Amino acid sequence: MNRGETVDLSQKKLFLLDLDGTIYLEESLLPGAAEFLSWARETGCAVRYLTNNSSRGVEAGLEKMRRLGIPARREEFLTAVEATAYYLHTRRKPSDVYYAVGTDSFCRQLREAGFDLRQTPDRDVTAVLCAFDTELSYQKVENACRLLARGADFLATNPDLACPTLFGFIPDCGSICQLLVNACGRRPVYIGKPDPTMIQMAWRQTGYGPAETLMVGDRLYTDIACGVNAGTDTVLVLTGEATAADAAVSDTPPSLICRDMAQLLERLKEARK
To answer: Are 238 and 219 in contact (CB under 8 A)?
Structure first.
């Protein structure tokens, strides 16, 4: 379902952008991404990068944007790690102890945010926290299974099944979680997109609201669903996971479908004439 004719693109001033599969693939910018970001800054619009990738921190994201020739500021990044920290601070007890299935960078960021993380399946662990772990080992999986069998809570940063690469896809957090679901019969509470927390954080930062916002991404069940859950317009770009055929049967169809960021930029410029 494409509802593009109902979207007033002339009113959009805050662009919430997914990264992997939307702005870039690995070390390559996708068509129109650089031009779109330049136009957004030249016209005084605000940009926030909303990513479910929890394998690296904001500093790594900034460095990658610099390598790709894209100017970016730290405050423009809203990640699944930040959403997770917000969730743990506001929804969990300060005394909770976590076992993380995640990268060293992920664990370091959570410790710096004040959370108690263990590297072994200690009996005082109250929750397993699963992320996109590019350093995954079978020992981590077994430790998580031990804890879930004891009754520890099951949390996860994001439900993405696959992360796009130049050659195809690799397993993301959702697929790692499915290993644990299959083994333990327990399903996690997902914290990142499609939960609207990151969008709400962007609104608090910028002062904009739903009518002025456009959520742009390549996944229906995370990026687009996040915008739908927040009550704002969405754009599906066909440079990553989802296809137009997928969108036609989705429970959370996008407001607009564009081939890539270049086509979205064309439509935005046309709407502002």
So the answer is: no
pTM for the predicted model, two decimal places: 0.83
> Is the predicted pLDDT of residue 4 greater than 50, yes or no?
no
Instruction: Locate 102 and state its tokens.
Output: 């995640």
3-state secondary structure 211-245: HHEEEEECCHHHHHHHHHHHCCEEEEECCCCCCHH
As given in the structure block, the two tokens for residue 230 are: 């927040």
Q: Mark 45-70 as b/e (b = at least 16 C-beta within 10 Å).
A: bbbbbbbbbbbbbbeebbebbeeeeb
| CB of 169 closer than 8 Å to CB of 207 | no
Query: Does the pLDDT of residue 2 top 60, yes or no?
Result: no
Q: What is the CATH number of domain 4-52+193-271?
A: 3.40.50.1000
The domain limits of the chain are 4-52+193-271, 93-190
- Residue 182 in tokens: 């299959």
Give the whole-angstrom CA distance, residue 241 versus residue 228. Answer: 18
Per-residue pLDDT tens over the stretch 188-241 = 999 999 999 899 999 999 999 999 999 999 999 999 999 999 999 999 999 999
Backbone angles phi, psi at 39, to 5 degrees: -60, -45
CATH 3.40.630.30 for domain 93-190: no
Q: In whole angstroms, give the CA distance from residue 237 to residue 151.
A: 40
